[in-house]
Amino acid sequence: MSEKVIIVQGNKTLKGSVTVSGAKNSALKLMAASILGQGESVIHNVPAISDIDVMGDVIQHLGAKLSRDGHDIRIDTAVLDTLETPYELVSKMRASIAVLGPLIGRFGHARVAMPGGCQIGARKIDMHLVGLEALGVEFAIDHGYLEARTPKGLHGALVTLEFPSVGATENLLMAAVAAKGNTTIENAAREPEIVDLAGMLNSMGARISGAGNATIEVEGVALDSFHPCEHTTVGDRIEAGTFLAGAAAAGGPVTVNNIDPNFLRMAIMKLEAMGASVSIGDKSVTVSREGPLAATDIQTLPHPGFPTDLQAQFMLLAALANGNTIITENIFENRFMFTSELVRMGADITIEGHHALVRGVKDLQGAPVSCTDLRAGAALVLAGIVAEGETQVHNIEHIGRGYEDYVGKLCSLGADVRSVPADGGHV
Ligand code: UD1
After folding, report:
1. Does 371 qualify as catalytic in the annotation?
2. How far apart are CA 390 and CA 370, in angstroms?
3. pLDDT per position as a tens digit, 158-204
4. 139 forms bridges with which residues in the sheet?
5. CA distance 201 to 34
6. What is the pTM of this model?
7. Whose CA is nearest to atom 24 of ligand 1?
8. DSSP state of 362
9. Which of 246, 321, 369, 402 is the most buried (most CB within 10 A)?
10. Cα of 163 to ligand 1 centre, how many Å?
């Protein structure tokens, strides 16, 4: 497959409405959770993105049968013939380790390649391991694989997480549901995707209460009480926030549909502080802006704080704001790498550790730029839409990992964006 580039013509506004897909970060874990159902589960509203393809490969590698029809996925996990997830898949997508919890929950045993570092930071899994150990799991490292065993069975426990890690909370939940006795997870992640996962687990027979709060209670149930289920993935708040940031950068009004506005409260507060007008519907949010963008400081924090996955998109707004903004990244240590690309478009940004000092400039100029991760990639395309002249965005495979038809959705809002082979021909 030839490499593709996104070509963006600048000086455009975005207007209209767009419907977000199902949340990537939910759907990936829902697919892993289907392991506990021991039969054919159906998941609706699954986004058509490449990370979902990788999770599909992980699940099929385990022996599950998977079929897709548009945004519906059927996964039959009645028979699994290996409990191992190979390096080739884990190295493609770190979220592959989400099968660890449900495999332990169902079989008491799993072998998962250790994830390496990735471009947005070291991303350790120590909290996953400490939490699972408290439930009775013993780990050994064997030739780059993490081997999990439960010689004395899986039992409930009180687990206090050092940090509200999303992945650790999910892996713990998916093991604890099938443990003997009760588990309490303190300092649990409170992201909407955790609530979605707990909802699916409960419809498979689990007994989880408190998901969405810092303390989650799990009453362990016997494995034969679990059954397959049908579940609809929650809307993607990060995709929604990306289009709203685009509207604030380029004018709007843009209405984003299929999203619970409550998921975006902090992002909406920041949009208003930056001078955008926001109106909130039942399952939609509309953003427009007439006056100049204003500077306001932002720090990323676990939900309901400002999401790290919207940091790059809001950096673009800060870059064009009237005044200086400090953006503090508290979740991932390397998540400012893309700022050098924005600087190449004329932004004035200084990085000092996990703080970015963004001095607003009047406008940006189109330039060749490169995606460093998927959210940065989405932000660079938005930057191109409001810049003067043409922007070529390289390494766009990152965008396809998490955004379904990003180019098509932006075009439907009036952007002039197209994806072409890197050698210049049209697709
Ligand atoms: C998930 C999301 C990602 C989002 C992030 C934070 C998926 C597939 N990805 O990632 O898009 O940006 O939540 O909202 O759902 N950490 C440790 N040890 C651990 C676990 C985490 O040190 O055992 C650190 C990580 O390196 C990171 C921070 O804690 O610095 C947050 O990680 P975590 O909340 O676990 O994020 P992910 O689940 O990896």
Report:
1. no
2. 14
3. 999 999 999 999 999 999 999 999 999 999 999 999 999 999 999 99
4. 148
5. 8
6. 0.97
7. 123
8. S
9. 246
10. 10
